[in-house]
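Many introductory courses stop at the sequence. We go one step further.
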Amino acid sequence: MNFPPNSANNSPSPRFLCSLYIALLILCHAHIVISADHRTSNIGAIVDASSRKGKEEKTAMEIAVSRFNRDSKNLQLFLHFGNSSGEPIQAAFTAQELIKEKEVEVIVGMDTWQEAALVADVGNRAQVPVLSLAASSITPPSRQIRWPFLVQMGSNVSEQVGCIAAIVGSYNWRRVIVVYEDDAYGGDSGMLAPLSEALQNFSSEIEYTVVLPPVSSLSDPKEGIHDELMKLLSIKSRVFIVLKSSPLMATYLFQEARRMGFMARESSWIITDTISSFLDSMDTSAISHMEGALGIKTYYNKTSGPFLEFSSQFQKLFETEYPEEDITKPGIYAFRAFDSISVIANALVRLGSGTNTPKRLLQSILSSDFNGLRGKTSFQGGDLSDSNLLSLRVINVVGKGYKELDFWTKDLDNPFSTEGVEAGSSRRKTTVLDGPVIWPGYLKRVPKGWEMATDAKPLKIGIPANTSFDKFVKVDKTQKDPLKRYTGFCIDIFREVVKILEQNYSLPYEFLPYHGTYDDLVDSVYTKTLDAVVGDVTILANRSRIVEFTQPFAESGLSMITPVKSREAYKAWLFMKPFTMEMWAVTGAILIYTMFIVWILEHQINPAFRGTWKNQLGTTLWFTFSSLFFAHRERIYSNITRAVVVVWLFVVFVLTSSYTASLSSMLTVQRLEPNVTNVEWLKANKLNIGCDGDSFVRKYLEKVLGFEKENIKNLSNQYDYPNEFQKGTISAAFLELPYEKEFMNKFCKKYTATNPLSRFGGLGFVFQKGSPIAADVSEAILTLTEKGTLKYLEGKWFPSSNECSSTTETTELSLQNFWALYVLCGATSTFCFLLFLFRLLNNFRRRHTKVASENGATANKHSAWRRTLELANYVQNGKITIPERASDFSQGSNIERSSSSRGSQEWELVSPSDAAESFEASPPTAIPIV
């Protein structure tokens, strides 16, 4: 019999249920553990999906995330893209959506600074770090204070403008034209102001700015660009800097510029990385229109293993995603996008599995330090640091590609280098680009950066039509030949300059006579009515601010011309003028000294010099003064005296000859002095003065020297000055130094000129500000000076007048001219006197001993006073008298007479010069000196 199965037997056993429960617990715990070790992170990326830049960035970010997720076991990155469409507001809305809906921890991207600034505001409010790929013009710390969560992955604007300014300065281009594509918000990416400041370091400036509308807003881009470039036809500068442009706008711009002749010879173009970064991905036909341009490109190593691996993977993926793009090579924007994901991924890895806060993530991002595709990646103050890298390289567009030239070293003095990458490495630095540059129009030399004159458009040169002194510039309207129609010193100099310039380039020109003041003539160059001015234009500070002057070819200053009168015609003491007062005093002193020496040497032995004191003094004076005219008749007995007299007569001969010559010159040469003493005297007496009313001199007299307007008379011709002086309508005239020399060369007998009251910059030629021709003309003027051509032209136009050249000022003769003669004369007289004194004392001692012994007295017993009196008597009379007592000495005359009766042998007259012989026995013969 069969029974139905028992349901109780089919239920699970308690043991099975317990085992199942334990298994489920183990599985749940394992899942929790696995979930704790495996983390995910959301990253937001904002790009312009329709632009080439955005496409490259998106592809590079996808590759970076794919690689990281492949190699990471604990962290997986999820990339969420948002399309900004190139609109900053759209970028901000996209950032808000990514933060709220996708809960992203960090945002990366933004191609323009306007987008980055708005997204950074969103990031600040949500405390989400933002990595910007756009270039920034705002430098720390101002950016960090305003946007603390903003990290800059793009290059700084200051580096690019510094490199541009270095290129401009190395070629001495003084004026540039800036071209940039405007955006919807009218911005220039903040590059214009830093560029202007950087150019000032090299004495350059921005002359004109061309703002092109966004290419997307133009129905006909070629026509829009043509209209803007037409405005440049009136501007001479031909150095163009394309500061910011999309690749499409750059293509249209260079096509139209080449068609309009702005890419011809003497032109130069510089492009920034907004264009040069796409040269690897641009169509070759578009690149060919840029041939000859210099560019700035961010440097990266194209031969490294990571670069080659990334480039290969990028091209495959890019071609798959964007088949409409013909060129698949990655650019610098792709490398930056790849490195930005690497920065974020490494920062998340460093944080680990702990609590992840926005501030910790930001600090981890800023502490990044690794080698990326574009080089070393680290941050300093929120900026990508390139302090140890030469990150920018100058390129030259050639054909349908480009070649790399030098690195930019950030050194103002030597800004370029062909070697090395690290800034601290030793390398050869240069002031200009080392490699050969292909310039627009295949010019073989550096372009002038200026529209040069052609036969169709010659240089318009203004010249003063009515000059006061026609030897500088003269316009003869009766002549048709330009060589004869325009003549003068300034015209000849310019023609010689052109001959030198034509060795390098042609310079067609035409002279245009200008009727007006010199200030108006200079203003015509400033307003670009004229290209230059050739003439006697004075270089002044206020003029140099608006125009460019060449090297001066003549000096300039302000002199005062006044009538003169004779200085010595009616002076009674003219005979004293040949010698200075010092000279007269020393001559008189040496004369008296010589007279004394002659008397000392002669009065004992020469009867002509004896007698009473009056007779001796008179004879001595007569002898000395008559010797001045070689009229002395007294005999000289002593040989020592003869030596003194010979030297004295030589001195007299030189002095009288010099005196006669100097006095004759003073009497024959007219010495003039001005009627007017100084400027203050003219102003105090309110006297009228004359000047050239067309020059700056009138304003100078009014504003600087302080003359009243009514006291200044305008004179337009050099011959008006003598007429006005003769009429008495002016008391003085003020002329610039070159005119003063020409005036005095003709009227030196009637007028005199003062030393320059002030100095100016000289006479020079005028060119427009920034014109490179001015520098070439300055160099040519220096060449003419060194070769002597300038001096030859001065002699040709301003020959010296024979009448005026003889009008030389005669100077007084001073002691400095004859001190050697006086020393010779004084030394000879002193030496002879000392010799005479030595022999005199020797004879006195010998005679005194002999006389004392004959009279039974001892010489040593005599008192000093007695011996002194005996010596004086001996010097005076040549005799020795020894009285028996002191009181008897007063009766010297009696003793002398009694002594004389003893015979001539005992009291003979002894000559100090000829002690061995008596003049009575053999009187010397007189030797008259005539």
